[in-house]
Amino acid sequence: MTSLSANALVESFTKAGQGQVFRFADTLGEDGLSSLLAAAAEIDLDELASLCESLLPQKSVTQGGPSINLDGLQPAPYIPLPEEGGDAALWDKARKAGEDALRAGRVAAFVVAGGQGTRLGYEGPKGCYPATPVRQASLFQVFAEKIRAASARYGKSIPWLIMTSSLNDAATRKFFEDNSFFGLPREDVIFFMQGRMPAVDARGKILLDAPDSIAMSPNGHGGSLRAVVTSGAAQKLRTRGVDMISYWQVDNPLVQIIDPAFIGFHVLNASEMSSKMIPKAYPLEKVGHFCLLDGKNTVVEYSDLPNVMQEQLDEQGQIRFRAGSVAIHIFDLAFVERLGGTGSGRLPFHLAHKKIAYVDEAGTLVKPERPNGFKFEMFVFDALPFAERPVIIEGKREDEFSPIKNAEGVDSPASCRRDQIRQWVRWAKAAGIVLPVNEDGITSFDWEVSPLFADSEAAFVQKWNSLEPKPQIAEGTLLV
Ligand code: UTP
């Protein structure tokens, strides 16, 4: 950066009432100053000013009250699974349409992996976390093998977008290099970083976390739609003939990354954004809810839906707002380009009230004990109301969703390990294998099925039937 543009940048911050960002500029060496200027150049001061203006005084955000008007709220309609009363012929038709789209190379995979993973407390990118029972294969390896299996089945390579953030980009890329891209063609893996937003205090002043460093953090998983476009990844997909993106979160190894029926429903409905719902396990389960608000599909977070509504039952005695969102979507590429570009319909930002370490006027680092500032984040499901012809289909929890969020307890490595084994036990049973299982449906020993051996019950049965001699399943068995 030339000193002229540096001066202009400092001046624009001063004019915007954010001159404190350069408070220590005179004391910094060349490197410190240039990294401070580079971070400052990422900030859209007009956008920040209007966010502070519209969001900061909204006390309901910090007090946990509902931030949206829920008048007329209804459950969103969804397509039930055949075993839950859905139309089996329609699911078959969708599956075939999805398989055609895959054979035509129209689908890319997309994992968002830019989060901080603070609850898990794992050093390093969450995708590197060892998730499987026998091999301790990382989440990234599980996904890579699912993509390899699907590519082989449909005879087309499936490009894989991986969104990182400045916190983990270098470590993520190195992990793939060190592991030879888990057998994927290197040109099929497209990394890009999501954007960042500065943290501010209650008056909207940008905080520094060191004299030469602005307190910046990733702009939320909703930042993925912008980043797909601004990184050039969307353009790369276009040139490969891709027109839809299968989206999931890095913490869920059970996810069916490439689900032909889901893709088919998206195609048959010419949907701009399709979603999978999982029926809530119990009324107050902490997931978002697919709802219909003002005629638009919308996800309402559990914190915004009063408990009485979460506990309502419908005429069949089922939870009325049962459609839980598990962050599994298919996006039409043109829709992403429309939302992620500079056009209208950009995603809103939400405020998160957090403890943010900052340097005070004397240059001393303060680590607050209570939330002292705000971060701005976008949520991917906020794209839903903008989508034309959105589709929601039902998924089976046991085949779709077991995230690793917490170090212990619910949604932890231990619960996920059990859910993986439980799924393989079900597949084995379908193949006629008799395994000793306890009342939870799990074996007392660890074993594992790689997605390269089978990535679904049908694939497992077919593969198992073709094996001669059949292997013994026991402690440490790895089917690969
Ligand atoms: P979470 O909401 O679970 O957040 O992200 P997290 O940062 O991973 O974990 P905690 O809350 O600090 O414990 C859900 C998904 O969205 C991605 C995460 O990587 C994960 O796949 N994500 C989240 C991003 O890619 N970028 C973000 O800015 C936030």
Reconstruct the topology from this structure.
Elements: H1 3-15, H2 30-41, H3 45-55, H4 59-63, E1 74-75, H5 88-103, E2 107-112, H6 139-154, E3 160-164, H7 169-178, E4 189-193, E5 196-198, E6 200-201, E7 208-210, E8 213-214, E9 216-218, H8 223-230, H9 233-239, E10 244-249, H10 260-268, E11 273-279, E12 288-293, E13 296-300, H11 307-311, E14 323-332, H12 333-340, E15 350-354, E16 358-359, E17 365-366, E18 373-377, E19 391-394, H13 397-400, H14 413-430, E20 448-449, H15 457-466, E21 478-479
Parallel strand pairs: 2-3, 2-10, 3-4, 11-19, 20-21
Antiparallel strand pairs: 1-12, 5-9, 6-18, 7-8, 10-14, 11-14, 12-13, 12-14, 15-18, 16-17
Helix pairs in contact: 5-10, 8-12, 14-15
The structure holds uridine 5'-triphosphate.
Describe this structure in words.
The model is unreliable at 59-66 (pLDDT under 50). The protein is globular. Helix content is 32%, strand content 18%. Strands 1, 2, 3, 4, 10, 11, 12, 13, 14 and 19 form a ten-stranded mixed sheet that branches. It has a three-stranded antiparallel sheet with strand order 6-18-15, with no helix packed on it. The longest helix has 18 residues, at 413-430. The chain contains 15 helices and 21 strands. α5 crosses α10 (260-268), α8 (223-230) crosses α12 and α14 packs across α15 (457-466). It has two domains: 74-405, Alpha-Beta Complex (Spore Coat Polysaccharide Biosynthesis Protein SpsA, Chain A), CATH 3.90.550.10; 409-480, no CATH class. It has 480 residues and is α/β, with parallel strands linked by helices. Uridine 5'-triphosphate binds at residues 112-119, 126, 163, 165, 194, 218-221, 223, 249-251, 405. The site of uridine 5'-triphosphate has 21 residues, from loops.
